[in-house]
Specification:
Length: about 60
């Protein structure tokens, strides 16, 4: 079984002491948490908005009129 590397997103600390996880693909803030370790779970659940959009676009039939 090949192990795919888990996507990792950069975490940064905000001036208010909270940690923020940011996706560099869709530029969305994935999560904000008091503890950096809490961001890891949110990172795993993140689905990129860009891939979601392309999936939605393929479902929509193009009807030139
Ligand atoms: Zn993303």
């Amino acid at each position: 079984m090949a192990l795919e590397p888990a996507p990792s997103y950069p975490h940064r600390r905000k001036p208010d002491g909270m940690f923020e996880s940011v996706c560099l693909t869709c530029f969305a803030t994935i999560a904000t948490a008091k503890h950096e370790s809490d961001l890891t779970e949110a990172d795993k659940k993140h689905v990129c908005g860009s891939s979601l959009l392309s999936r939605r676009a393929s479902l929509k039939p193009v009807r030139p009129n």
